[in-house]
């Protein structure tokens, strides 16, 4: 493709985007006004589907297809970073870091509490602030409190990276499978087809808790895989410097 043709294609695409952007800006509600049609639509949909946490209603119900794209992007980013950080897998684990006894004691106490907090954030994502992304980050980072207790050797024993690599795939596949199951019913890809239940119940909001759990598995596993690569590189550099 010649440079001239590429420029023409860019010009046509840019003109189309500019027209759509201008139309959207001209039809926006007045700033500071009392009429917010999108807000009303979002709140009505969340209430109809028994999802008190409106953010989760948007992420896993009203725009679940966008969330699936974001989850896939996260998976791709973690895979790319893990591939770039490969190397030094056969090196012996470095000696545990010198950690103060007070820090070790706090890490022992905080670890189970942090894990429970992460699980609660994922499970109750449809009811209270939180969800799969937030809870997955808490779970993924909570595991690494073990590093403060016993160093990389102890961490490697309690978090086999291969299990979390599989967890990334399982979380993404579960999200896709839920969407395809909804499409098989004729309602559309990622449509909320399960019973909505009673507002305030953990089993309410239809497919929202399922999708939140799938994202929680994928995000937690991705964080563990990513931090494993960074720790491997960092501790290998420390050993080389020592």
Number of helices: 9
Average predicted local confidence, pLDDT: 86
Helix percent band: over 70%
State the order of secondary-structure elements, H for helix, E for strand: HHHHHHHHH
Oligomer: single chain
User: How many DSSP E strands?
Assistant: 0
Largest sheet geometry: none
Q: What spatial form do the alpha-carbon principal axes imply?
A: globular
Strand content: under 5%
Ranges with pLDDT <50 over ≥5 residues? 237-241
| End-to-end CA span | 54 Å
- How large is the radius of gyration? 23 Å
Give the helix/strand class. Answer: mainly alpha
Provide a concise account of the structure shown.
This protein has 242 residues and is mostly helical. The chain has helices at residues 3-26, 37-48, 54-62, 64-84, 101-123, 132-142, 145-158, 161-184, 208-241.
């Amino acid at each position: 493709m010649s440079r001239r043709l590429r420029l023409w294609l860019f010009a046509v695409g840019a003109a189309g985007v500019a027209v759509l952007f201008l139309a959207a800006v001209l039809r926006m509600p007045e700033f500071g006004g009392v009429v917010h049609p999108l807000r009303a639509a979002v709140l009505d949909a969340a209430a109809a589907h028994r999802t008190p946490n409106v953010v989760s209603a948007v992420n896993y119900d009203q725009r679940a297809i966008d969330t699936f794209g974001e989850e896939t992007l996260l998976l791709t980013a973690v895979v790319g970073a893990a591939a770039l950080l490969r190397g030094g897998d056969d090196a012996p684990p470095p000696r545990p870091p010198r950690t103060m006894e007070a820090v070790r004691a706090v890490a022992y106490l905080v670890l189970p509490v942090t894990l429970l907090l992460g699980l609660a954030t994922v499970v109750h994502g449809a009811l209270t602030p939180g969800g799969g992304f937030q809870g997955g980050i808490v779970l993924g980072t909570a595991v690494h409190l073990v590093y403060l207790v016993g160093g990389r050797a102890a961490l490697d024993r309690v978090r086999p990276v291969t299990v979390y690599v599989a967890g990334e795939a399982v979380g993404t596949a579960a999200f896709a499978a839920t969407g395809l199951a909804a499409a098989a019913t004729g309602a559309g890809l990622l449509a909320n087809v399960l019973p909505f239940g009673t507002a305030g119940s953990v089993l309410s909001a239809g497919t929202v808790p399922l999708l939140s759990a799938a994202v929680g598995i994928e995000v937690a596993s991705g964080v563990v895989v990513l931090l494993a690569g960074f720790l491997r590189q960092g501790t290998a550099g420390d050993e080389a410097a020592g």
